[in-house]
Amino acid sequence: xxxxxxxICSGSDTDIxxxxxxGEQNKYAGIxxxxxxxxxxxxxxxxxALYTVFDNLYASIFFGLIWGLLIFNLDRYIVSTIKKTxxxxxxxxxxxxxxxxxxxxxxxxxxxxxLKIFEKEINQILLEQKNELTLANKNQIAEQFxxxxxxxxxxxxxxxxxxxxxxxxxxxxxxxxxxxxxGTAGTKLLGKGPVYKEKRDKHDALLAELQQLKELxxxxxxxxxxxxxxxxxxxxxxxxxxxxxxxxxxxLMARVNALGELPWVPSLFIFLxxxxxxxxxILAKLLSPKGAYDYRLEDEETAVKTNVLQNKNQxxxxxxxxxxxxxxxxxxxxxEDVYTYKRTKARELMQLQADAFYKQQKNIL
Length: 365
Known about the structure:
Elements lengths: L1 H8 L4 H4 L4 H33 L2 H25 L6 H30 L1 H64 L11 H54 L4 H9 L3 H24 L4 H44 L1 H28 L1
Helix pairs in contact: 1-3, 3-4, 3-5, 3-9, 5-9, 6-7, 6-8
């Protein structure tokens, strides 16, 4: 049962192959098995590749099955249409476009499996790329908010400097009136005299201005810090919203690009493996000697071709003979009394026409 299934996969004529030896049947069963397992690997590879795209198991299996059947049909067609002629050069010319197609199929099949085989290495490269993208994304978003935050921080610094400058003036006045009271500066008279009172009043007035400035600038600083906090929250929110895009940066194209960064030698050997698998049915048929199946198939095809040519030549001969017979018949009729009879009747008809025309003209006159 399995052998019969593989023979069907090879695309050979089962009726002809049943008349051949067991060895010939086993040869085509082996070719059919290669075709079947190549299509099976194409199904697995396509399902995995589509799963990385759609992230849906059932859809991936469905479309992978369609791709596997397509590859199976192509391989079966390629093998079944190669005819053994006994001339190696003619067979190679006949198989060359099919070998090119096999190379293309091998590339398509091998790439998804390479992605699966080197999955861990690809994930490491993708992780590094994601980290770089995350940092670049944060820097790009920060460039949108940093100028505003820096300007607000400068405003806070300016407000704080105003308070500090006013505090310095108050402290200077405080030291001045204390020194006046102690007699160490100013009038150098110990005690609280008129000069002391004047300097103390000036200090108290400036201190009141300092308190007002502190209240005003503190409210401004709090409002500015609130704006900075809002900008920082917006920055964090935008980073959080854009991060899933970076986290999902592991699609098929990203993985193929990551695979390109790995050493090319392992990928080359995997490709060569699939190329050998894909071209093995063709090479097996090209390298195998012309067997009983090929002779029987050639005999059947040439018999049909000969019969068609015979029928065609026979129809052409019949047509040619029919033309000759018709020509001869009409030639004989031309020489018989029919010609004389038809000439007489035509003369009578022309005379009647002339008489009718004469009478018509006479009546007019």
